Request: fold
Amino acid sequence: MPLLLSKRNEHLVEWMDRPDCCRELLFNTYDQFGRINRLLSGWKKIYREYLKPIILQKEDGEIKILDIGCGGGDIIRYLNQLAVDDGHLVHFTGVDPDPRSFEFLKKSSWPSHITFRSASSAELVKEQLKFDVVISNHLMHHLTTRQLREVCRDAAALSDQLVLFSDIERSDIGYLSFSLIAPLLFRNSYIVKDGRISIRRSFRKNELQQELPGGWWVERRFPYRLLALNKREINEK
Reply:
């Protein structure tokens, strides 16, 4: 249990979430997300444990994965590369309600099986869209309790099989380690400033479990990570 960060501070606002933040620094942050997420977010293990078995159940090209709050698209790019390396074609869709994200994403070229939309999860639910798997990375700590429950309900409605939401777990050691190491690796972006705020806004395992709707459970991952899951067969009971 943290001593310095014993309570979640959800009232802090990350710089990249501010409508008047510096666009250059924001786009640099999107660029640098790929490095930090590959180092710390554990998506390669999540892919092997949860996504690859689902991919193997269907023919290539039939699997559809949605990333809610996709930001700069780095998680989709990484998961797509893992799938391609395994010889599989997966259709990815990324959505983010922030139009600046969509503006950044349009600067890069993407394969035809990867698409992005400037939209919210609620809009996709209204369109009655369905995906095999719904994921998010570092989304939950940005949200209020009400927003978190709404997005979780949207994700469960959009998923035919599985929802995976990965995020930071608040800890003193994680905060101090990040504060020491991140400034050496990341410059000219909001990574360091917002990383500290993100940790202070993030949940502990028991806190997150209490906030999630029924049918969800939380796993603790290394290093200082939480994985919130929801399976379709649980929803249907």
